[in-house]
Write a structure and sequence with these properties.
single chain, 219 residues, alpha/beta, Rossmann fold, 3 domains, 5-stranded mixed beta sheet, 42% helix, elongated
C-alpha cells in the first residue's frame, strides 16, 4: 500500500516528521492524486515547515558597532571572544570575517549558530579569550555567560551601540539568587518547573539535579 511506503519514508528519510502523520483514506490514487505526487508534495511541505520553524529574522545593526569592537580588540593583548543570540548571528559572522584571528567564534553544544548562546547552553562562551563581547540586547545572556565562564563580559547592543560591562549586574543577580536560597530554608516542600525546549526537558535527571542543588546548600 502507498500509505505504508509513505510511512516508511517518514521513518527513514525524515526523522523530524511527526510520529503520526494523519492521512485521510480518501487521498491516494482512488482520490485522483498519484502516489508519487502525494509523497513529493507532503515531503516538500514538511521541509518548508522545518525551515520556517528554525528560521529567525536577522535584525539590522549600526555600522558603528565594528569601530567599538575594534577598540576592544586593540585593548586586549590576545583574542576577544564573541557571543550572540539568534537575531544577530549574521553580524557575528561578519565580525569574524573582518577581524579574522583576533576574534574567537565557537559553536555551542545545543545552539545551531557559531557564537550563539542559549539560556540552557553557554558552551559557546567557553573560549580561550579573557574577554567576551555579547552582541545583542538585554542582560540575560551576558549575565549568564559571566556566571558560567567567570570571564569579563561586555554587552554591546548592535542597534543603539550601548555598552554595558555586566560585572555589577552579575553580582546583583547572584545576591538575589542566594537571597532566594536563604528564604527557601524555611520551606518544607519545593516545586520544580521544567522547560519543554531541547536541553531543558530532562525528566530522567530531574531528581538528581534537585538533590545535587539541595545538598550544596548549608542548611
Amino acid at each position: 500500500m502507498w500509505q505504508e511506503e509513505l510511512m516508511e519514508l517518514q521513518r527513514s528519510k525524515w526523522s523530524g516528521w511527526p510520529s503520526s502523520f494523519p492521512l485521510p483514506s480518501s487521498l491516494g490514487e482512488a482520490g485522483g492524486i498519484s502516489r508519487n505526487r502525494l509523497i513529493s508534495e507532503i515531503t516538500l511541505t514538511w521541509r518548508c515547515v522545518k525551515l520556517k520553524l528554525f528560521k529567525v529574522n536577522q535584525l539590522s545593526y549600526s555600522e558603528d558597532v565594528f569601530s567599538i569592537i575594534e577598540e576592544e580588540i586593540r585593548s586586549e593583548s590576545g583574542k576577544v571572544g564573541v557571543i550572540t543570540n539568534a537575531q544577530f548571528l549574521k553580524l557575528a559572522y561578519e565580525v569574524k570575517k573582518r577581524f579574522k584571528d583576533r576574534v574567537e567564534l565557537k559553536r555551542g553544544r545545543l545552539a545551531r549558530g557559531l557564537g550563539q548562546v542559549l539560556g540552557c547552553d553557554f558552551s559557546a562562551a567557553r573560549v580561550e579569550s579573557r574577554k567576551l563581547i555579547f552582541l545583542g540586547d538585554g542582560l540575560f545572556h551576558p549575565i549568564g555567560a559571566r556566571i558560567s565562564t567567570g570571564k569579563e563580559v561586555l554587552s554591546l547592543n548592535p542597534v543603539t551601540c550601548e555598552q554595558i560591562n555586566v560585572e555589577k549586574e552579575a553580582e546583583r543577580f547572584l545576591k538575589m539568587r542566594f537571597h532566594s536560597i536563604f528564604r527557601a530554608k524555611r520551606s518544607n516542600s519545593f516545586g520544580v518547573i521544567l522547560g519543554a525546549m531541547r536541553g531543558q526537558f530532562r525528566m530522567s535527571r530531574r531528581d538528581e539535579y534537585v538533590m545535587d542543588e539541595i545538598s550544596e546548600v548549608e542548611w
